[in-house]
Amino acid sequence: MYDKFLQYLCSNHHFSQKELDKVQKYFEPVAYPKNSIIEKEGKVPQYLYYIISGYLRLFYTDQNGNEMTTHINCPPGFFTSYSEFINETISENNVECITNCELLRISKENLDHLIAESQAMKDFSISVFQQSITYNENRSKELSVLNAEQRYLKLMQDYPEIIQNVPIQYIASFLGMKPESLSRIRKKIIN
User: Fold this and answer.
1) Cα–Cα distance between 187 and 108 in angstroms, integer?
2) Which terminus of the chain is more solvent-facing, meaning fewer CB atoms within 10 Å of its CB: N or C?
């Protein structure tokens, strides 16, 4: 389970064997079945997850009781309610396994220890944070500039595996539309 993660870590950063051993010590392997809520709203997120396999979503429930999906992730990559995890504050979001998931998880305390003990991990963490900021800025821009069909086409182009593995209602919410609207767009594209 660690092989993919260690390859991901070492793809752009140099880790000594001692540092890699520490990474394996601090990251705990876990598996969750489909539809599991692994971080609940109203609590401080306990873990940062690295996705080995499976699909996760971040969602909150609006004042009308509708689930609003704000983020969908697929392997490889990190996932949690980031700002609340880092700042150790109560989250309004849930983290749910859309599919069966194999994950590696680390607590905030252990992540802080690892970063303090490993310059490579510190550099890697900064890189992940920068990628996250870039992704979120691009996503905000896409939601404000692109129409519904363009957003769906861009998702198909950039992340075709999400289209194949994530239920339509989550994709629609993530793209800022109703499932019926997404169904019409999909029919139009097929025709």
Assistant:
1) 45
2) C
Q: What is this structure's pTM?
A: 0.92
Spell out the alpha helix ranges (H) of the chain. 2-10, 17-26, 82-87, 108-117, 119-145, 148-158, 160-165, 168-174, 179-190
Whether omega for the bond prior to residue 167 falls within 30 degrees of 0, making it cis, is: no
Q: pLDDT tens across 96-136, in order? A: 999 999 999 999 999 999 999 999 999 999 998 888 889 88
Give the span between the Cα atoms of 44 and 89, in whole angstroms. 5
Q: Which residues contact 139 (CB under 8 A, 6 or more apart)?
A: none
- Residue 144 sits at φ, ψ, to 5 deg, of -90, -25
